[in-house]
């Protein structure tokens, strides 16, 4: 089968060799390996990036962000703005116009009804939609005419590009999903495993958690694309085996998310390797979070790690600052991430408009400075090499999830802190417990029963508003909110809360960027509440024969898969 | 024998129910959250709603009883329905996997062939290698053949499959390029070239697992043969002037096979359990990979159903082993 398609592809190539552009399907089969296999192709019911990446081959949004962070139209004819009247003056609605003559892969027309339906599908209270956050503040989605959709918000929206502008919330076909709304969503296995889309490819077969095959969409809007006749997306195994299949054996063309140690990557990508590494830097930052409250186990359950008791050691900003100064971030990057990391002091390192490039004070390690700060704070060096104050040892608990790189970081940081006289007790917790939000477990990152914890977080899309809003006082996890909320540090500053409210009412992009920078500095260099360590990118492996691949931190890595082709 | 079998089967029902309850309790009280894989950018309220849509927020007893009903009533009815062509289930909820939102039974049915071909074949190959090695090793105890056999089975026992598997990939895929390192589950064997592809992609996983299986079974075979070779009836047979061939292959081998057959029968459920590590290494994506993935994703209905099916198989093959023992050895009678 594969041989015949390859031969057919080759024959087709010969026939049109003089033409400047390859015709649809002329480059044979594209082989992707995702070591986490896709479980479902409906992004609204999915549990992870792997599923969203797979569904992005088929389903498309109205518009999406390019690797540069610019919004470009996909199903929409143009990007609505205040200037062209697409966004209402009061910021309470946005009107999208679809490209004329758009077709689903089954040949039927794409209409505004499909967009309206997609909104209803996700916003159904019984559906358990995984992308509901994109519809926050949406009052209604309605069709003005067959190619025009109007989204009305309950409040003025400074960033009205949330719904339908990323691979996380693409447009579903109404006809296919009509009977799958609400509680019926999981019963539609056929639709969830084979959504009909508008993308360059359509689903040919789907074996859950194993392999997906796609074939070129005969009704794709560009008659010359895609260059490949089909895609095999194999899942399973581990990142190492995926890297091997692209760099060494050449069995696959693209390997997603190669979270491997820099040494391993280096060893596989020598001069005779069959592929190379590509990296995309989004907003993912590996950071230390300082607990502003007391996690001591002697406190009664329900008061531990709550604002009732401030942290006896970390409440002093000098200690937090010293802890940050003692760390050599460049070495951390070298050890843990190689090409997939950069040292950073920012919570918001990208997009460029929002990143404070002046915040670089932490990049240089300063052990002597750290010692001096701790002396000033009253922590005197004891005979055993650790510091004491009023007979109390400077001792911290430091937790993170179980992960080889994180344990390396813990060991390095423990050593650096030891050098300045801080005793550290390390703890690592299985990721599904640490990041699971079981309020009954004492080991979740929300409960934060430790002084310091380390993990990585980012925001979806290019707008950090919701991300910054996580650090308001009311978002601190506590028994009152069943330990939910993302303000792990229990940071609380009325001035910051006021800025969050103001950001939610500001539409001017320049002013927004300034505000985000100020808030970023408040959380990082001004208060050392969050101590950023590494700006992490994602790395993938691409075969040297693939052309047109353009890894995107703001959308699916396969966002432009229709433009990929093979070098001959 | 027949009444014994019936009695055992009836007794198996409360045992299995108890097992299902224990599995359920273990899974429920183990830490973890089906939403842990959802990206952190998804707010907790949305996660709570997703959890509710899965039914993961229901009381434990309700979840357990619902699973029992789905597993023992709806799923068998559905299988009967697909076989006869009548829709016996209607819209009743089948056991649905949380991770994929599709019926667990369908996924298991999809994975079964991969596991049975690769793991099953390795078991057959393992047994076929192990029996002659065990026989010769015992007959020529402490000879060079026995020493080599012992050495190889020690390697098979002690070197983990994730090591042998990766070694084979490095040698035969990366350097020699003979076999693919990634198993293609979409391959349909409908012609000789495809059959050849299938053989090539099965060679390495089967070899890895067969080494492990052969190591175990050949040790059993050897030990059992040695026991019997010391027996008085062997001396009697030789004294009667029988050839060595008849003595060893007819008398000793038959008697020695009794415990080995039991061991082989008890090992069969493992085939269905898949080989978690080997499947991961070669991306076979059979039942073993399915189970480990479901455990990582906290896909409770999937883990519960799979482990319970394994429990059923283990109970059944224990019974089969006992019955076989009675058939093979006339001295053993259960009634």
From TrEMBL, chain B:
Keywords associated with the record: Cell membrane, Membrane, Transmembrane, Transmembrane helix, Transport
Residue ranges crossing the lipid bilayer per the database entry: 9-30, 120-139, 151-175, 195-215, 257-277, 306-328
CC per GO annotation: plasma membrane
UniProt cross-references to PROSITE patterns, sorted A to Z: ABC_TM1
Domain ABC transmembrane type-1: 112-321
Topology of the protein relative to the lipid bilayer: Multi-pass membrane protein
GO biological process, one term: transmembrane transport
Signal sequence residues: none
Transcription regulation found in the keyword field: no
Location in the cell: Cell membrane
Name of this protein: Glutathione transport system permease protein GsiC
Organism of provenance: mine drainage metagenome
């Amino acid at each position: 089968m594969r041989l015949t398609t390859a031969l057919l592809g080759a024959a087709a190539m010969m026939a049109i060799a003089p033409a400047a552009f390859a015709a649809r399907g002329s480059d044979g089969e594209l082989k992707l390996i995702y070591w986490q296999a896709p479980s479902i192709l409906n992004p609204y019911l999915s549990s992870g990036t792997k599923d969203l990446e797979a569904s992005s081959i088929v389903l498309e949004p109205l518009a999406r962000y390019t690797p540069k962070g610019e919004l470009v139209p996909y199903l929409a004819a143009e990007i609505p703005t205040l200037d062209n009247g697409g966004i209402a003056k009061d910021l309470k609605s946005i009107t999208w116009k679809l490209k004329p003559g758009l077709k689903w892969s089954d040949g039927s027309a794409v209409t505004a009804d499909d967009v309206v339906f997609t909104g209803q599908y996700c916003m159904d209270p019984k559906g358990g939609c995984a992308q509901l956050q994109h519809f926050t503040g949406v009052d209604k989605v309605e069709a003005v005419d067959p190619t025009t959709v109007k989204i009305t918000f309950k409040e003025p929206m400074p960033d009205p590009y949330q719904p339908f502008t990323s691979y996380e919330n693409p447009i579903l076909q109404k006809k296919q999903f009509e009977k799958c709304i609400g509680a019926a969503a999981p019963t539609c296995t056929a639709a969830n495993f084979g959504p009909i889309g508008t993308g360059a490819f359509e689903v040919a077969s789907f074996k859950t958690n194993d392999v997906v095959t796609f074939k070129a969409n005969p009704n794709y809007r560009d008659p010359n694309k895609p260059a490949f006749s089909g895609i095999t997306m194999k899942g399973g195994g581990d990142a190492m085996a995926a890297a091997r299949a692209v760099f060494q054996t050449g069995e696959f063309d693209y390997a997603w998310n190669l979270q491997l140690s820099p040494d391993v990557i280096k060893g596989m990508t020598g001069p005779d390797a069959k592929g190379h590494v590509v990296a995309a830097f989004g907003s993912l930052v590996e950071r230390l979070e300082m607990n502003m409250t007391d996690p001591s186990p002697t406190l009664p359950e329900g008061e531990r790690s709550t604002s009732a008791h401030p942290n006896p050691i970390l409440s002093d900003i000098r200690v937090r600052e010293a802890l940050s100064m003692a760390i050599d971030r460049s070495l951390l990057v070298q050890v843990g991430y190689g090409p997939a990391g950069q040292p950073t002091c920012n919570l918001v390192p990208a997009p460029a408009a929002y990143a404070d490039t002046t915040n670089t004070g932490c990049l240089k390690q300063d052990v002597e400075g750290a010692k001096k700060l701790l002396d000033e704070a009253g922590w005197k060096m004891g005979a055993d090499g650790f510091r004491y104050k009023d007979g109390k040892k400077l001792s911290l608990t430091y937790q993170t999830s179980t992960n080889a790189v994180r344990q390396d970081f813990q060991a390095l940081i423990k050593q650096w802190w030891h050098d300045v006289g801080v005793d550290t007790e390390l703890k690592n917790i299985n990721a599904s417990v640490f990041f699971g939000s079981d309020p009954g477990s004492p080991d979740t990152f929300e409960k934060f029963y430790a002084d310091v914890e380390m993990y990585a977080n980012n925001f979806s899309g290019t707008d950090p508003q919701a991300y910054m809003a996580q650090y308001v006082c009311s978002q601190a996890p506590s028994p009152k909110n069943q330990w939910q909320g993302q303000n792990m540090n229990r940071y609380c500053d009325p001035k910051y809360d006021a800025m969050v409210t103001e950001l939610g009412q500001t539409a001017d992009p320049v002013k927004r960027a300034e505000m985000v920078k100020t808030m970023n500095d408040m959380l990082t260099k001004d208060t050392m509440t969050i101590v950023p360590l590494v700006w992490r990118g994602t790395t993938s492996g691409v075969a040297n024969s693939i052309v047109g691949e353009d890894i995107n931190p703001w959308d699916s890595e396969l966002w432009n898969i229709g433009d990929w082709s093979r070098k001959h | 024998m027949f009444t014994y079998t019936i009695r055992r089967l009836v007794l198996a029902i409360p045992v299995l129910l108890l097992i299902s309850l224990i599995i359920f309790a273990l899974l429920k009280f183990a830490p973890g959250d089906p939403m842990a894989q959802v990206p952190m950018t998804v707010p907790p309220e949305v996660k709570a709603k997703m959890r509710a849509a899965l039914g993961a927020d229901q009381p434990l007893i309700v979840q357990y009883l619902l699973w029992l009903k789905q597993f023992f009533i709806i799923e068998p009815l559905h299988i009967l329905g697909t076989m006869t062509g009548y829709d016996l289930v209607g819209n009743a909820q089948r056991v649905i996997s949380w991770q994929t939102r599709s019926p667990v039974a369908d996924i298991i049915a999809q994975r079964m062939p991969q596991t049975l071909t690769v793991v099953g074949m390795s078991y057959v190959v393992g047994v076929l290698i192990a029996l002659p090695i065990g026989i010769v090793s015992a007959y020529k105890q402490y000879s060079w053949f026995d020493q080599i056999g012992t050495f190889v089975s020690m390697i098979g026992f002690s070197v983990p499959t994730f090591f042998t598997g990766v070694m084979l990939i490095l040698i035969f895929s990366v350097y020699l390029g003979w076999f693919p390192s990634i198993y293609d589950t979409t391959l349909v064997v409908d012609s000789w070239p495809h059959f050849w592809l299938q053989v090539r992609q099965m060679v390495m996983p089967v070899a890895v697992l067969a080494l492990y299986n052969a190591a175990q079974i050949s040790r059993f075979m050897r030990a059992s043969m040695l026991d019997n070779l010391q027996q008085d009836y062997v001396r009697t047979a030789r004294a009667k002037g029988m050839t060595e061939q008849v003595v060893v292959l007819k008398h000793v081998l038959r008697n020695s096979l009794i415990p080995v057959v039991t061991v082989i029968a008890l090992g069969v459920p493992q085939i269905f359990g898949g080989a978690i590590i080997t499947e991961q290494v070669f991306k076979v994506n059979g039942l073993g990979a399915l189970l480990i993935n479901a455990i990582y994703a906290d896909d409770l209905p999937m883990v519960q159903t799979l482990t319970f099916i394994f429990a059923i198989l283990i109970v059944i093959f224990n019974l089969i082993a006992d019955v076989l023992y009675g058939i093979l050895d006339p001295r053993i009678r259960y009634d």
